[in-house]
Amino acid sequence: MRTAVSQRGVLSATPRRFLVLVALMTAWVLLTPFSLAPEARGQGGPEVRSFQKKLTVGTEELPPFSMKDIDGRWTGISIDLWRQIATELNLIYEFRELDHYNLLKGLTDGSLDVAVSELTITPERLDRFDFTYPFYTTGLGIAVPFKEKNVLISIIKQLFSITVLEILIIIFSTLLIVGIVVWLFERKLNPEHFGGNTIQGIGSGFWFSAVTMTTIGYGDKLPRTIGGRIVSLIWMFSGIILVTFFIATITSMLTVNQLETSVRGLEDLKKALVGTMSYTTSEPFLKNNLISFKTYKSIDEGLEALINGEIKAFVFDAPALRYMIKQRFQGKLEVLPHTYSQENYGIALVNNSPLRKSLNRVLLQKIREQEWQETLNHYLGR
């Protein structure tokens, strides 16, 4: 009897255990999608799920990494990359335009969540805020006035410059005045050499003053009056001085153009006043290399100062310099081929940002895609 009861208890317990097991399996299947990492569902990491507020993304105009088009829409290498990452992670954000100083300040005081521009990762900045992995590596470039590489073309340009034209106008005006004065003295008493109508007479006087100034003295035109000879004598000595001045000026122009102190590398920066943009990594670079410099609020302002001769060179991130010169200063400025002080650009974040891990994951994925190379080619050229 006891054995039969025991067997019935076991048999009755089996369905209950089976039902419990089925219930547990069903619950596991139903709850699994909610327990998977958000990355598996395409929603970013758990840090993104806990950061669903609207992000304030600071930026500034530093072409070609961040700039506004004619409609006021932000574009550029950094901006395009950020948009791709934000779309992948379903982030809601708004851009806030700031100058460079306030962009860095906003990350430090927490008024910004993210900064997307041309920001270099440095140890000093990492003490104040955080960065993603680098997405672009470059160096500092040196912008200088464009110098014609062909010496002959450079000489021809100097000879046809405004300065030479002004000197020639002065010389020809003086020749004409001297010629007219000589003609006035000679026209009646020396018609053989300075006769004819007014135009012919003045032409003869002009010719005489020209050959006298150059000390050639063909002898085909000679003054015979006392007044004409006095003017001629004075003009002989004055002409020598004028010709000497003209030759000296041209020689000086060509010599200065070829031998003036020009910036062709880092060592040359120490001999000249240099410009750079304030609150950027180029400032400590110049200080560490004992180079005197003047700061400007923007690249445009600095390059304009270079054009106007206020500075001899402008030091900043090479891609930005090449882009700006190509767009606005083609044929006036150039960037030297060598770069200095490796620069790694990253997306800046406030310290301990919950976004960092997910941003890094998507950033590394994006910069390995062909689309990233096409973006670089679009803004920087091949």
CATH superfamily of the largest domain: Periplasmic binding protein-like II
CATH architecture of the largest domain: 3-Layer(aba) Sandwich
How much strand?
Answer: 5-15%
How many extended strands?
13
The secondary-structure class comes to alpha/beta
Count of discrete alpha- or pi-helical segments spanning 4 or more residues? 16
Question: CATH topology of the largest domain, anyone?
Answer: D-Maltodextrin-Binding Protein, domain 2
Oligomer: single chain
Tell the overall outline: rod-shaped
Q: Spans of 5+ residues with little confidence (pLDDT < 50)?
A: 1-13, 26-44
Q: SSE order in H/E notation?
A: HHEEEHEHEHEEHHHHHHEHEHEHEEEHH
Largest sheet: 6 strands, mixed
**Through-space gap between termini:** 93 Å
pLDDT average, as an integer?
82
Radius of gyration (Å): 40 Å
Number of domains: 3
- Assign a percent range to the helix content: 40-55%
CATH class of the largest domain: Alpha Beta
